[in-house]
């Protein structure tokens, strides 16, 4: 217990309640004192209550509570929530009712009661400056979220026998604490939890763009801060955020950062970029982790894991890499927004994630992706809790509606304890700090593609004709479709015309997706070659995950925010491919869409887009088509804000009568999602004991959406089965061979019986949780899995109509 407290002293070095917290953390395992725990150790006897529940029982005993309040001052209203926080150090709050506490203490025995009280008395002497003075119940409950998290981290480090080896009981407790304090810094260094000092030297050696200059020059306010960077795609927002981050680290507004991205693909791409930059933030090498469910498959992350420590490269030790939860404790974490949002859901170890984030600047990229009512409430709750604990954040976006910007800003201001003044300044681009300075007067960029003309195509046939003409001129083309099945159909139609077409969507195995992404980057990336006369057909994965550049773009109709993102891949790298080098005279966004002036029924969109008509709300689709028909172009930055507000703002125009029912249903669904978010997220005011939880992550999803089912694809090799991927490591090959699809669409298919002998033999050494998480599917030589389902390495998972209709 003193080992753990010694670790906590360092982790809490700057906290105003440090001594109080460390005293309580020293008592976190006092519930192990007693007969039940000894019987468990010596005889394997089951415990009626876990030791951490007994900790709460000991510290809530009248004699103990009286002793503590006598020395600490304050009231039991402030003490009791804090006791529950340190007792809940195994990732869940104690929930045993107070009527059980007397029984717990009685079962421990009279000697244990005497010993527990004696240890409390010693700890009070070891931290004489600990005080509850001035602490009220409301503030104490707020503090429980941080206290529970730091207790868990300190317990994990202080319980490591390699760093705190067992010692004979010859030292007095004060002398033992001295020794523990000597060991603690070395243990934290070994764990990768001692952040290096920040460095103020310039991060980049290139000429800064206007938004990057603004990030360098804007005045930083005292205390927690929330800058919001709004600029078009490709304007250098990431570099601006890193410049701002460096200044915030030097101003002691965080000891590191977590870069939160919308998807695993965008997180992987950001990790590649961050790896070469983050060492410039610190005076010595920082720890760097990748936090998402497939991090172990990232070649770049494995390189960091395996790299020898040096003075000019980030590192990631075994302790940090052991779990996604610990990944948030690294100096620099890169991962999905989901890993951060779990900090405000009632799941196990949510407070650990919260503690990891509380020491960092939280950078949320593509913040406009959080506009869904469920996600928006989660992010607002996270920003509020983060600010409440002294944390700062940065939001990056190209298309954030003003209402969402105000909502997130208000949540942060409330958490920081500040008054909030609505900011509806529509200027774009914009760098604004909630409650602070703002820069909204930017010179035009030196290199620009100019205005993007918007052209409507009446159907998919017209899109194929246009792409055929463009490829004949040597243009590099892309067609972004809303649905996977439509993308597959588009590739087939293009190939029938003799056009070289590639396909990228989310229904590939990870192995094939990585292979295709590498080929796509080699062709259409900044330095791409062999791009002339080719077409890439893809889905939403093309909006933000890959740095691609096309001469000609076709897109299915989508809400304006998505179209702006997609258009960011059109004539992107003007420094590498100026207008004079392009095979077409100007950038044009061709949109496959029906005429917004002719809406005869609620299936207005379905006649033109098949599966893609179901992906987005009809009202957003119609408004987008209407405002683009009136505007005629995308002018960055000229009309982007106005277009976004016309579709997503509070004064968006009324839809035609034929679409009113669809809009009403969509609004109802939005209210339902927001209500579920309120039910699922923690209530900060309740404190950790009453507001926390112990659920698995899957029980409280970070996002709502169609339920998916994971298939593990296998192929035959002689008389044996092997994963679809040929990776040499078996576990990696299995992970790379997985593909997900809609559970509803798979439900009607006759998928393989998982009790077949050859399938049970394949999973013989799997744990039970793994067996139930995936469905094994054997891909025959012709690609067939079962009737209605097939797989092709270049087309992905094919859900086809059955032969009977």
UniProtKB/TrEMBL annotation:
<dbReference type="GO" id="GO:0046872">
    <property type="term" value="F:metal ion binding"/>
</dbReference>
<dbReference type="InterPro" id="IPR001650">
    <property type="entry name" value="Helicase_C-like"/>
</dbReference>
<dbReference type="Pfam" id="PF18019">
    <property type="entry name" value="Cas3_HD"/>
</dbReference>
<dbReference type="GO" id="GO:0005524">
    <property type="term" value="F:ATP binding"/>
</dbReference>
<dbReference type="Pfam" id="PF22590">
    <property type="entry name" value="Cas3-like_C_2"/>
</dbReference>
<dbReference type="GO" id="GO:0004518">
    <property type="term" value="F:nuclease activity"/>
</dbReference>
<dbReference type="InterPro" id="IPR006483">
    <property type="entry name" value="CRISPR-assoc_Cas3_HD"/>
</dbReference>
<comment type="similarity">
    <text>In the N-terminal section; belongs to the CRISPR-associated nuclease Cas3-HD family.</text>
</comment>
<feature type="domain" description="HD Cas3-type">
    <location>
        <begin position="1"/>
        <end position="157"/>
    </location>
</feature>
<dbReference type="GO" id="GO:0003724">
    <property type="term" value="F:RNA helicase activity"/>
</dbReference>
<dbReference type="GO" id="GO:0051607">
    <property type="term" value="P:defense response to virus"/>
</dbReference>
<comment type="similarity">
    <text>In the central section; belongs to the CRISPR-associated helicase Cas3 family.</text>
</comment>
<feature type="domain" description="Helicase ATP-binding">
    <location>
        <begin position="218"/>
        <end position="418"/>
    </location>
</feature>
<protein>
    <submittedName>
        <fullName>CRISPR-associated helicase Cas3</fullName>
    </submittedName>
</protein>
<keyword id="KW-0547">Nucleotide-binding</keyword>
<dbReference type="GO" id="GO:0003723">
    <property type="term" value="F:RNA binding"/>
</dbReference>
<dbReference type="InterPro" id="IPR050547">
    <property type="entry name" value="DEAD_box_RNA_helicases"/>
</dbReference>
<keyword id="KW-0378">Hydrolase</keyword>
<keyword id="KW-0347">Helicase</keyword>
<dbReference type="InterPro" id="IPR038257">
    <property type="entry name" value="CRISPR-assoc_Cas3_HD_sf"/>
</dbReference>
<keyword id="KW-0540">Nuclease</keyword>
<keyword id="KW-0479">Metal-binding</keyword>
<dbReference type="InterPro" id="IPR027417">
    <property type="entry name" value="P-loop_NTPase"/>
</dbReference>
<dbReference type="GO" id="GO:0016787">
    <property type="term" value="F:hydrolase activity"/>
</dbReference>
<keyword id="KW-0051">Antiviral defense</keyword>
<dbReference type="Pfam" id="PF00270">
    <property type="entry name" value="DEAD"/>
</dbReference>
<dbReference type="InterPro" id="IPR011545">
    <property type="entry name" value="DEAD/DEAH_box_helicase_dom"/>
</dbReference>
<dbReference type="InterPro" id="IPR054712">
    <property type="entry name" value="Cas3-like_dom"/>
</dbReference>
<dbReference type="InterPro" id="IPR006474">
    <property type="entry name" value="Helicase_Cas3_CRISPR-ass_core"/>
</dbReference>
<dbReference type="InterPro" id="IPR014001">
    <property type="entry name" value="Helicase_ATP-bd"/>
</dbReference>
<keyword id="KW-0067">ATP-binding</keyword>
């Amino acid at each position: 217990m003193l080992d753990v407290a010694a670790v906590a002293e360092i982790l809490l070095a700057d906290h105003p309640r440090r001594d109080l917290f460390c005293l309580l953390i020293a008592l976190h395992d006092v519930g192990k004192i007693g007969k039940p725990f000894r019987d468990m150790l010596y005889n394997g006897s089951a415990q009626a209550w876990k030791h951490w529940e007994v900790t709460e029982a000991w510290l809530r005993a009248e004699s103990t509570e009286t002793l503590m309040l006598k020395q600490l001052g304050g009231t039991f209203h402030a003490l009791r929530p804090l006791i529950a926080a340190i007792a809940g150090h195994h990732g869940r709050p104690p929930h045993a009712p107070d009527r059980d506490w007397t029984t717990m203490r009685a079962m421990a025995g009279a000697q244990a009661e005497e010993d527990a009280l004696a240890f409390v008395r010693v700890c009070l002497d070891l931290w004489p400056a600990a005080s509850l003075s001035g602490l009220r119940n409301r503030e104490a409950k707020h503090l429980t979220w941080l206290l529970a998290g730091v207790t868990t981290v300190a317990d994990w480090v202080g319980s490591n026998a390699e760093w705190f080896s067992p010692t004979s009981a010859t030292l007095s407790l004060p002398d033992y604490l001295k020794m523990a304090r000597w060991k603690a810094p070395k243990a934290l260094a070994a764990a990768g939890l001692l952040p290096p000092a920040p460095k103020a030297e310039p991060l980049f050696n290139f000429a800064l763009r206007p938004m990057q200059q603004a990030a360098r020059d804007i005045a930083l306010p005292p205390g927690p801060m929330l800058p919001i960077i709004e600029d078009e795609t490709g304007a250098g927002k990431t570099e601006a955020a890193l410049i701002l981050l460096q200044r915030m680290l030097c101003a002691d507004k965080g000891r590191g950062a977590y870069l939160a991205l919308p998807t695993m693909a965008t997180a992987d791409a950001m990790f590649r970029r961050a790896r070469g930059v983050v060492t410039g933030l610190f005076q010595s090498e920082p720890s760097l982790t990748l936090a998402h469910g497939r991090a172990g498959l990232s070649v770049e992350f494995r390189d960091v894991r395996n790299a020898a420590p040096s003075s000019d490269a980030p590192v990631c030790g075994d302790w940090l890499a052991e779990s996604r939860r610990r990944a948030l404790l690294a100096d620099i974490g890169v991962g999905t927004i989901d890993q951060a949002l779990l900090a405000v859901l009632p799941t196990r170890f949510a407070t650990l994630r919260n503690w990891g984030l509380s020491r960092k600047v939280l950078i949320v990229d593509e913040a406009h992706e959080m506009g869904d009512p469920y996600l928006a409430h989660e992010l607002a709750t996270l920003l509020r809790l983060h600010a409440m604990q002294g944390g700062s954040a940065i939001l990056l976006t190209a298309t954030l509606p003003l209402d969402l910007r105000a909502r997130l800003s208000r949540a942060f201001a409330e958490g920081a304890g500040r008054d909030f003044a609505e900011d509806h300044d529509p200027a774009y681009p914009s760098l604004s700090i909630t409650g602070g300075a703002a820069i909204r007067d930017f010179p035009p960029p030196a290199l620009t593609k100019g205005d993007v003309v918007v052209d409507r195509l009446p159907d998919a046939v017209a899109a194929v004709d246009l792409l055929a003409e463009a490829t004949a001129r040597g243009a590099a083309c892309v067609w972004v479709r809303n649905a996977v099945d439509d993308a597959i159909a588009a590739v087939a139609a293009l190939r029938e015309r003799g056009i070289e077409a590639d396909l990228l969507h989310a229904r590939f195995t990870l192995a094939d997706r990585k292979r295709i992404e590498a080929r796509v980057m080699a062709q259409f990336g900044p330095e791409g070659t062999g791009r002339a006369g080719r077409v890439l057909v893809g889905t939403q994965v093309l909006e933000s995950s890959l740095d691609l550049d096309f001469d000609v773009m076709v897109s299915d109709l989508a809400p304006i925010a998505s179209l702006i993102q997609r258009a960011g891949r059109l004539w992107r790298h003007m420094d590498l491919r100026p207008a004079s080098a392009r095979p077409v005279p100007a950038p044009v966004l061709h949109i496959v869409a029906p005429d917004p002036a002719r809406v005869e029924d609620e299936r207005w969109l379905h006649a033109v887009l098949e599966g893609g008509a179901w992906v987005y709300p009809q009202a957003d689709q119609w408004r987008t088509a209407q405002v683009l028909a009136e505007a005629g172009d995308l002018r960055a930055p000229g009309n982007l804000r106005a277009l976004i507000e016309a579709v997503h703002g509070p004064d968006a125009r009324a839809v035609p009568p034929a679409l009113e029912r669809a809009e009403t249903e969509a609004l109802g669904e939005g209210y339902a999602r927001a209500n579920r978010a309120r039910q699922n997220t923690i209530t900060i005011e309740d404190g950790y004991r009453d507001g926390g939880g112990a659920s698995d992550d899957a029980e409280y999803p970070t996002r709502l959406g169609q339920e998916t089912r994971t298939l593990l694809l296998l192929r035959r090799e002689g008389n044996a089965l092997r994963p679809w991927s040929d990776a040499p490591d078996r576990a990696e090959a299995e992970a790379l061979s997985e593909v997900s699809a809609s559970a509803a669409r798979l439900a009607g298919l006759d998928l393989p019986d998982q009790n077949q002998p050859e399938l049970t033999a394949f999973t013989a050494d799997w744990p039970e949780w793994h067996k139930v998480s995936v469905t094994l599917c054997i891909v025959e030589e012709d690609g067939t899995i079962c009737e209605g389902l097939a797989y092709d390495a270049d087309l992905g998972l094919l859900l086809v109509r059955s032969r009977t209709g």
